[in-house]
Amino acid sequence: MRLKNVLIVTEDIERAKKFYKDLFGLNVILDQTENAVLTEGLVLQDKKIWEAFIEKEIVFQNHASELYFEEIDIESFIEKLETYDVPVHYVTPLTEYPWGQKMVRFYDPDGNLIEVRTPM
């Protein structure tokens, strides 16, 4: 068995596609209006559709999971975040650990938690 995709819920698929393309370079490989599959296995699902599937209310900013990315030039990535057209809400500002690794945590426009670190 292998993990195929990771699905996150969004209130605005077009905004989410743009966010993940602009900041992470993820491209749409399958677009089904209420569901989009991006490169690297990320799937965006419309909130209304997902709520109907699971028959439960969606709770954003729940801190139960996060998307994890690695970036060698994290300072340049932070500059992209700072100048992005949608303000970014930071959870953990850029932090450098004693062993030299740097990390930042923030929410995407829908409140999904994202962590970006420099590789070890």
TrEMBL record:
The record's listing under Pfam families reads: Glyoxalase_2
Ranges for domain VOC: 2-119
Protein name per UniProt: VOC family protein
Record organism: Brotonthovivens ammoniilytica
